[in-house]
Specification:
Layout: H1 2-29, E1 32-37, E2 43-46, E3 49-57, E4 62-75, E5 85-90, E6 93-98, E7 107-112, E8 121-129, E9 148-151, E10 156-163, H2 170-177, H3 180-184, E11 188-192, H4 198-214, E12 223-226, E13 235-241, H5 247-250, E14 262-268, E15 273-279, H6 282-292, H7 295-300, E16 305-308, E17 324-326, E18 332-335, E19 338-347, E20 359-366, E21 376-381, E22 384-390, E23 399-404, E24 414-423, H8 429-432, E25 438-441, E26 446-448, E27 467-468, E28 471-472, E29 475-478, H9 485-501, E30 509-512, H10 518-521, E31 525-530, H11 536-540, H12 566-569, E32 573-579, E33 587-592, H13 596-603, H14 609-612, E34 619-622, E35 628-631, H15 639-687
Parallel strand pairs: 3-19, 11-12, 11-13, 13-15, 29-30, 29-31, 31-33
Antiparallel strand pairs: 1-10, 2-9, 3-8, 4-7, 4-9, 4-10, 5-6, 5-8, 14-15, 14-16, 17-26, 18-25, 19-24, 20-23, 20-25, 20-26, 21-22, 21-24, 27-28, 32-33, 32-34, 34-35
InterPro entries: Cell_synthase_bac
Protein name: Cellulose synthase catalytic subunit
Subcellular location: Cell membrane
């Protein structure tokens, strides 16, 4: 009997094991949700007919079960509910129409998206007829400034999906590691050993900078941390020299093969997916870090391990952005008489901003039955009119609109471009006869955005001040003696934004923790983190800081910009951007506070374009309640102008000195002539 029971038990275990394994697998795979916000700002559309276009992405390792579009909008309170309507289309296919309610405040429309219409990259179009009352002729819809629809920036697409686990390739791991859902859920991390060396930090930083370059989430960021056995993130990159590689993973590495080369190896476990990067050769390890930062190489590596020597080509391809931004890949058509609007939400490369000379180039076609005495097209950028052009009978089959942006119009990292047509007709009979007016915007339409590098040491130019030729500009990061969790989080914030701007992986990034010479300090642009008690460079720079410490280095003291109570000064974190005191031709950013928590607090203001965009000065201060200060201390913020001013002062000083010498010489000569003349006069008088 016992044998039978034991046999049955064994069978139960054998049959239940796959079920348990399947359940464990499903716990990671099943029932995921992700909300993808649109990149647009809140935008108001005006006219009897309006249209806006935006974009969203479906990630390739999702098995999507449901996709929902949530439109957050507000419509004129005067709209006619019987004639106003809004329609949504996905990839050119109309899927949903409704009549908005006539009420105050925001409204939300929830729309299920047909899954068969979705691809990797998707276009979503919102168009509508916004009418406040109907004309007497029953055909013309009266247009007034009260015809408007506002689309708010809270609009999004929500996905419900099952996760496809990574395959046994570096490429598959990479896609999951940098996926928007993985980053948003805090499931990715880059780790280095405890008490990591400068080389290990440098190699890991190349990797995290390259990863952040392609990460699309705007609220969550990739973290660099010190490895512990308790790390729970399912996707991990571990960068270490072989001797410092965590013991659980040494058995997975062939020690002889990493004597001279580095290895990148993917361990695809059930609960965690680990990418090991290690070598005994420090130069090879640094080159492996650059390999991590190269999206092309990582997505081409269809195997679970690859070896990199110190001579392996890992540099990113140089695809120069020429400033040309297309609006649409397929073209857009507006159908209907009178005022019609098409809106585009345009994203720019991170280091581009408008300077004088930017322009828009529209290729358009339109119906030939318009009233060409009154019909025109107008272009707006962020609701600022760029210019208008009349429509003509000769241009109906192909017209060009070329307009320059207004001078000093800042467009930051994105902008809203609105193309408004006034498609007027001379008589309603034109519409009655079925000859509906129309206009189209061709796919060759684009904006040309000029930009230039500047050396202005202000936060409005950060982090561009540390980027040259799309790569790190000989940058050194000076860290405290001991890296705490707060310092790792602060360093992560700094690297995420720097990596977002550095398109190439060829720049130099050097780390120092102690024993750094003045010669080294004067040879690099610097980012310095720490308190004056754990970073001797900060301590020695106290006299050069804008916010300085007291004699005991325990709090900030009052200055020309802010009176600081001693206890309050202990809560402040500061980011101070200055000409380097070790080499005035270079730049230094000092993230410092009386505490490590304050240093991290200051770094939170520099972790994204959105965060840093609000600051215009050269000092940021933030307290524990997130009260923020923005001050400018430097009168001249440009290296070039500063040096020019210095040269001018030196030249003027030389002129003054030479002029003074000349005056002294002239005075001596004049005095000599005077006395000689008197003596001559006295002698002459005596002779007489």
């Amino acid at each position: 009997m016992k044998k039978i029971i034991m046999f049955v038990s064994i069978l139960g275990i054998l049959f239940s094991a796959p079920v348990l394994a399947k359940a464990a697998e499903n716990s990671e795979q099943d029932n995921h949700t992700f909300t993808q916000p649109f990149q647009n700002t809140t935008t108001s559309l005006t006219g009897t007919a309006v249209k806006a276009t935006t974009y969203f992405t479906k990630i390739d390792y999702w098995d999507v079960k449901k996709a929902t579009f949530n439109l957050n909008y507000q419509i004129t309170q005067l709209e006619n509910q019987q004639t106003s309507d809004v329609t949504v289309a996905v990839n050119g296919v109309k899927i949903h129409s409704w009549r908005p309610e006539n009420k105050n405040g925001r409204q939300t429309e929830t729309i299920d998206l047909p899954l068969n219409l979705l691809s990797g990259s998707n276009t979503l179009t919102i168009e509508g007829q916004i009418v406040n009352y109907e004309g007497d002729d029953g055909y013309r819809l009266i247009e007034t400034p009260a015809n408007w629809l506002t689309v708010y920036d809270g609009s999004n697409v929500n996905f419900q999906y099952d996760l496809k686990l990574p395959e046994d390739t570096i490429h598959s791991f990479y896609n999951h590691f940098v996926g928007a859902d993985t980053i948003a859920n805090g499931q990715s991390v880059v780790s280095v050993p405890e008490n990591a060396s400068d080389v290990e930090l440098e190699a890991a930083s190349y990797g995290i900078s390259g990863f952040s370059r392609i990460i699309t989430t705007s609220e969550q960021y990739l973290q660099l941390t010190s490895w512990t056995k308790n790390q729970t993130q399912p996707y991990q990159v571990i960068v270490a020299t072989y001797k410092n590689l965590p013991e659980p993973y040494k058995k997975d590495i062939d020690e002889k093969k990493v004597e001279n080369d580095a290895v990148i190896k993917f361990l695809n476990a059930k609960d965690q997916h680990i990418l090991l990067v290690t070598s005994k050769n420090e130069k090879a390890l640094l080159n492996a870090g650059r390999y991590l930062a190269n999206q092309e190489l990582m997505t081409q590596t269809e195997k679970k391990e690859t070896y990199i020597s110190e001579n392996t080509d890992t540099f990113t391809s140089s695809l120069e952005f020429d400033g040309k931004i297309p609006f649409t890949t397929t073209g857009d058509q507006l159908i209907g008489a009178y005022h019609q609007e098409q809106v585009y939400f345009v994203s720019l490369p991170t280091d581009y901003n408008n300077i004088n000379g930017s322009s828009v180039d529209l290729a358009i076609k339109y119906a030939d039955n318009l009233d060409f005495d009154t019909s025109l097209v107008t272009v707006y950028v962020n609701d600022v009119p760029v210019g208008s052009q009349k429509l003509t009978a000769s241009g109906a089959n192909g017209d060009r609109v070329q307009l320059k942006f207004p001078d000093n119009l800042e467009v930051a990292d994105s902008f809203v471009l609105k193309v408004a047509f006034d498609l007027n007709v001379k008589s309603p009979e034109v519409i009655r006869n079925g000859n509906t007016p129309w206009a189209s915007i061709e796919n060759t339409s684009s904006a040309f955005i000029k930009s230039e590098d500047t050396d202005v040491a202000l936060f409005e130019n950060y982090p561009n001040i540390f980027i040259a030729n799309n790569a790190f500009s000989d940058l050194a990061i000076v860290l405290p003696e001991k890296m705490t969790d707060e310092y790792f989080k602060a360093l992560s914030n700094v690297l995420n934004l720097l990596g977002n701007y550095a398109k190439d992986n060829t720049g130099n990034l050097t780390f120092y923790k102690e024993d750094i010479s003045k010669r080294d300090l004067g040879s690099h642009n610097l980012i310095i983190l720490g308190t004056p008690k754990d970073n001797t460079v900060v301590k020695n720079m106290n006299k050069d800081l804008y916010f300085t410490y007291n004699n005991s280095l325990s709090t900030f003291v009052s200055n020309e910009k802010l009176s600081i109570e001693p206890e309050y000064g202990k809560t402040l974190g500061t980011a101070q951007l200055m000409f380097s005191p070790f080499n005035s031709d270079l730049t230094a950013l000092v993230l410092t506070s009386p505490s490590a928590e304050g240093v991290y607090l200051a770094s939170t203001q520099l972790n994204s374009q959105k965060s840093v965009a609000i600051y215009k000065g050269d000092l940021i201060a933030v307290d524990s309640n997130y009260r923020r200060y923005d001050y400018r201390f430097k009168q001249e913020a440009s290296h070039e102008k500063k040096n020019s001013l210095t040269s001018q002062i030196e030249n003027n000083l030389n002129v003054f000195v030479y002029g003074l010498i000349l005056l002294i010489v002239l005075a001596i000569v004049a005095t000599s002539i005077y006395f000689i003349s008197r003596k001559y006069a006295d002698n002459t008088k005596g002779g007489n």
